[in-house]
Amino acid sequence: MSQATPNKPSQHLSQLIAEFPRRHLLIAIAACCLLFITLMVMPSQEAEALRTSQSITLPIASKPIIEEPAVAATPQAPWKELVVQKGDNLSLLFQRAQLTGRDVYEITSSSKKAKQLTQIYPGQKVAFQIDADGKLLALKHQHDLLKSTLYQRAEDGFTVTDLEREPEIRQRHVTATISSSLYTAASKAGLQQNLIMEMANVFGGVIDFVYDIREGDSFSILFQEHFIDGKKVGSGPILAAEFINQDQSYKAYRYEYGNGDIGYYNEQGISMRKAFLRAPLDFTRISSSFNPNRLHPVFKTKRPHRGIDYAAPKGTPVYATGDGRVVEAGYNKANGNYVVIKHGESYTTKYLHFTKRAVKRGQKVKQQQIIGWVGSTGYATGPHLHYEFLVNGVHRNPRTVLRKLPKAVSIAAADKDEFLKQIGSLQMQLAAFQNHHKYAANTSATNNAL
Questions:
Q1: Residue 305: CA count within 13 A, CB half-sphere
Q2: M23ase beta-sheet core domain spans which residues (predicted)?
């Protein structure tokens, strides 16, 4: 029985393998494995083409754009503004705006603050915002050019918002020479009355504007003015000022402390505010001076006049000349309406013949606080203020005793650096304005001479 003949190709391959060097054989096996793995991982061209076609981002078919008709925004209801006339009240204004008494009640009863709407004055403006159905949406009450109150309808009534416009602040410089009176010179220079009074208050501790003013005296002030929409609405504080009285110069600069307090000091930091004012009222004349041997104008007998009489129109305000407490405030046959103020332990001031008092007994008062108004009550031949000054119970001449009183305080050492920093720019501005004014005056005089 014969054996099967082996397959020749297989036998030939085995022989080749057996004869192939071992190292080359291992390399060939590794190459074959690598080729197999590569073929398993790489997809066919068709598969690759299919995969690539699925991964491409195609533009998304957008929905057809349907142009809807433009919806106009609901127009804001217009405002209707009314000016309060003499004799007007809130009901009349609402009637003119075609609103009802129910609308008046609805807005004024919406909050406690809304009740201030009942206080309207001629010249003020009230604006109404009313929708097409006649419903009140909002109301604006303009108190003045700076302050307004806005009432806006809400779910449960009206909200109330206070509005205040910030004015544009400009600086202005004014200088003038006195020929008749301070008030006349300042008015001709364009200063408002409140600013004139403020200037008198600034220098009231060093100048007696009743007795000390002379023809040829001059002043120069730098101050603020406030504007709204290009219209002047008021004057701000004095920033710096110089007053030349009888050839003596007094300068004052405004200084604001960190806590908001304001003071006026000279360039050395000495306060312009003295312990007592030189006079208890502004821009009057002395009708009777301190005189121990004066003939009394009513009784025509020789009686000492232990104070100074300032003739002034009835109703002229009278100021406390220093801080203190009112120890007497009443009326009697001789003095009429009078006030007595105690200033510490040593000093007392008396003010007689008021038409009306503004303070009560026991009340604390500040320097320059109004305590009454000039009148002619009691033994008086005409409207005037009788003013007395006592030191330890003894009458002294109010005009001369002030020289013996304690000096004004100086700015604290801790504030000195900040003070000098603040007034430095004011000094330069005041000097620049003054030099410009002198140059303009000299130029004008030269042109007139030519």
A1: 22
A2: 304-398
